[in-house]
Amino acid sequence: MVLNVILAATAVLLAWMCYESIQIPVQFKADVAKRDEVVIQRLKDIRTLPEAHRDLYQKYCSTWAELITFAKTDSVKICQKIGTLTDEQLANGLKEKDAWEYLCNPKKYAKEIAKFELSKETFSRDTIKVNVLDNDSALISRNVWAWIDSIQYVPYAPNDTFELELGSVTTASGYEMSLFEARVAYEVYLQGLDEGELANKIQERKDMEKYPGLKVGDATQANNNAGNWE
User: Fold this and answer.
1) Is the residue at 64 inside a domain?
2) pLDDT tens digits along 65-113
3) Are 98 and 153 contained in the same domain?
4) d(CA 10, CA 148)
5) pTM of full prediction above 0.85
6) What pLDDT score does 11 carry?
């Protein structure tokens, strides 16, 4: 009787251990995928802003404070377009640039305006300034304005910030190219998950000589600011 109880308990224990050995990696993988998705999206949002700064000033921001100030207070020029040229106007050799110049100087180009039947009510190409955050549809859709002051903080690790690093590389032609990198280690945003599985994941990346975490850009070599998940 006692032996039967022991055997039954042993069988239950073995079954539980088998279940755990399968379930823990499965759950860990699911949790990692969930967190990866959120962190990757944050890194994409972050990447947009340094690139905008580079496009305007030919360099990247060196601190999070500088980047946030840039996003909130700076602006970019965009061309606001209304209307298009007709097939007849195009066939007669009219170009958009010329059409707008004619309309901006009506006294000087009165004949051309009459010839091509141009009107600012139906055609315009005006340059306006918009805030950096209002110039990107992805940032607008994600309402980055509401949380721009905390964009540097890591999801699932609110007391930690993404690491920001700048670098440069000299091209074959002698041009010094500025480089940018934003990254977060697995041990930061995956904290609280199974320690054994996390250690294995980190070691696997190290064995491959790859960064054990997620990042965009590279401070040591040009990679078009790609993410290491892309």
Assistant:
1) yes
2) 999 999 999 988 877 788 888 888 898 899 988 988 898 899 999 999 8
3) no
4) 56
5) no
6) 52
